[in-house]
Amino acid sequence: MHCTYRFRILVVGTICLAGMALSARLTTAQGLPAPKGKLADKCQKAIKKSGGAFVGQALTGYSKCSTDILKCFETSGNDLKRFTCGGKVAGKCTTAIDKVAKARVLNHRKAIVKACDVAGLTIDDIKGADGLGFQAQATACNDAGFPLNDVGGLASCVAAQHECLAERMVLVEQPRAKELMRVTHISQPRLDSLSCLTDLVGGGFHVADPKPDGAFIVGCESAISKTAAKFAGAKLKGVQKCVDGAFTCLQTKVPADQTDCLAKAGATCAKEFAKIDTALGKVDGAVDKKCDDPANPGSKYASLLVSADAADLDSPTVECGTALGTYDQYKTCLRNEHEDRVDDLLRAEAPRADELLSRIGCELDTLSCGHPTPSPTATPIATPTPP
Question: How far apart are CA 270 and CA 367, in angstroms?
């Protein structure tokens, strides 16, 4: 497990720890009694559906903003054209940032509240081990300013987690993203709102030759973002389907029907994991088409793409946890970071994810199925000690 270490400083670390704890104890939790179970199932599905849509919008909006500014800086022939273009794009970026912020509140958060704040389902049901399991995140959400006293607090916490994790993926795709927003004078409050998108403090410079170097840089960065976002979306959709399958079995089926239901969910999940592996295998090739020279592999990265005036691809070492001195090291980081952030997204929206996957013989960290499934054990009943 590649543990994360921050969400607004606190929450993502707890996501990781919660996942580890659930994996370790393979809880005996089941589902809520009818009709609460069906309401919980609807709530969980809504959290995932709106979360996936929001993350996709955030990734697209932020990366396109960065790529468009980069294009102004790297392909314009002179400073006048460069800053005229940058000013126009900055206006579009401001609109994009505002749209993402609006979507977080009016789409993502609102969808959670609509599906989960319903008669017959309480916040204690949602937090409970037999419900959605959000008690595992209660302390971290509270510390981050989102106490789980009601569904509104839960929705705000989940939405903020999704925002932060999307920003962290953009940082690896586009290390200069926040720098470029800053030097084009996007307002400080908007920059501050992107608190998980680190500004690596570049100076807003550019390479000397707009063509071919500038055009190559822009094409490469565009390919990285589109490829990585496509993979992240595909993986998130697949693992969500796996967890939904197990959760639906426990929440909507009577115990006598759960075994067959869970077996079918496990078979479906194995297929989803295979699709994810296939999608992951396509990432390097798609990036190579726009970022590498097949006649001299790795040369473009070493001679151009790592420059702070170009794409600065070797700079997100803190996020990646390692030096990025070679093209292969960068691609490994790109893959690993998007895999791990998607795992975090899943655990943020479904705290029972690891436990539920274990019930169908699957593991998130290894993307594998066919493991032994735990058997629920009854809580021992205390007996009086003879005098």
Answer: 8
**Token pair 């990734």: residue:** 59
The model's pTM is 0.91
Angle formed at CA 349 by CA 359 and CA 249, multiple of 5 degrees: 35
Give the mean model confidence (pLDDT) for residues 326-338: 98
What b/e sequence results for 83-92 when a residue is b if at least 16 CB atoms lie within 10 Å of its CB, and e otherwise? bebbeebbee
Which amino acid is it at 162?
Answer: H
Give residue-wise pLDDT tens across range 143-192. Answer: 999 999 999 999 999 999 999 999 999 999 999 999 999 999 999 999 99
Number of H helices, E strands in the chain: 16, 2
Q: Among residues 216, 159, 186, 189, which one has the least CA distance to residue 65?
A: 186
Structure tokens at 103: 């979507």
DSSP state letters, 187-230: -HHHHHH-TTS----------S-IIIIIHHHHHHHHHHHHHHHH
**Where are the domains positioned within the chain?**
11-369
